[in-house]
Write a structure and sequence with these properties.
The complex is a heterodimer of chains A (109) and B (269).
Chain A lengths: L6 E3 L2 E3 L8 E3 L23 E3 L6 H18 L24 H6 L4
Chain B lengths: L2 E6 L7 E2 L5 H4 L4 H5 L2 E4 L2 E4 H4 E4 L2 E10 L3 E2 L9 E6 L13 E4 L15 E4 L19 E7 L13 E6 L15 E4 L15 E4 L10 E7 L2 H8 L14 E7 L7 E6 L2
Parallel strand pairs in B: 1-6, 2-7, 6-8, 8-9, 9-10, 10-11, 11-12, 12-13, 13-14, 14-17
Antiparallel strand pairs in B: 1-5, 3-4, 15-16, 16-17
Classes of the chains: A alpha+beta (109), B mainly beta (269).
Chain lengths: 109, 269
Amino acid sequence: MPFPGGVVRSGSKVGSKYKTMFASTNDAFCPTLKGATNTELSPEIESVMEIVIDGLTFEDIALSMKVGIEAICNLGAASGVKRISAGNYGGKLGPHLFKLHDILNGSNS
Amino acid sequence: MNALTFTLKNALKFSVNCSALTPNSLESKSMTDIANTKVTYGNHSVQVTDLFDITGSDVTHIVFKNASNKMDYIGAHMSSGNITIEGNAGAYLGFTMKNGEIHCTGSAESYAACNMVGGLLKIDANVGDFLGAGSEGLRKGMRGGTVLIKGNAGDRVGDQMRRGLILIEGNVGDYCGSRMIAGTIGVLGNVGTYTAFNMHRGTLLLKNAPNLHATVQDCGTHTLPYLSLLFKSFKKYNTPFSQLSSQRVQRFVGDAAYKGNGEILILNA
């Protein structure tokens, strides 16, 4: 796993403002940079946990995401979880797109 | 051995340049040579004994008694030893100071810690403008060391500051952290207007929220665990900053007009 436990805060995005650096801080999901960038976060969000998933097939990853999302939802809003999103990185990370609603509906393909 | 003590004989009419009276510049001199040392007083040179009574012989610890705010450049280019100023100090206290410790029991004029590189500067009362700034024409201000101010500071604290730590227990004037490149400034009192003006990087740690200008952006309230390490580094100094413990801060970033990434942290948010 590239990160301890497969979980990383905010993480990195594909690309940067420097041509020799292929990855940089995922500023849109960084809570402490909310005022300094085009953020994807609402004001009450103070932490973003990015879960990195490595898998052999599309179906395995989709199933693991479904199980993970359901486990988080079962914790409830009182646990502090505000929302679940997926990092698309503008399609720069690879050909596969995991659409969360489709995964939860079982209609992913 | 007793500390080498320079006691001012009479009130000064003009400014005197005290840069020659540092531990490292006097360490190889005999007492006769020290007494014959020339200092610039107004627009002419005078012997040290024309202005000061000299007692003691330990050049590693220099004491200025009856010190006045016309005594400029105390501790300039100092690289070792201790200087104690009993009274006020003039401008450019600790100018380009590299190491050692300076303790001023009174107030200091403008440009204290100007171009400072290392060491510890403690001022028990107030300090003038441009604390930790660079001298005219330079693009970088303070480049290292620690400054502790018990009282208030004037305008332009940390102007173009590059590295180091400034802790101020009282209030500061306008343009705090202006053109700051890096380093840390802490203020427990109130801060004037145009804080972080053209700030590039660095950290302002403020107890009270200032009236920030539009190009400093609010990034919300956060709990930042790394602050415990910062507060722990304050423990070795006798300052109320060492009693800080809350990691809860409101974080601002700026100055956006300068594409700056400096951070302003408001404590106890």
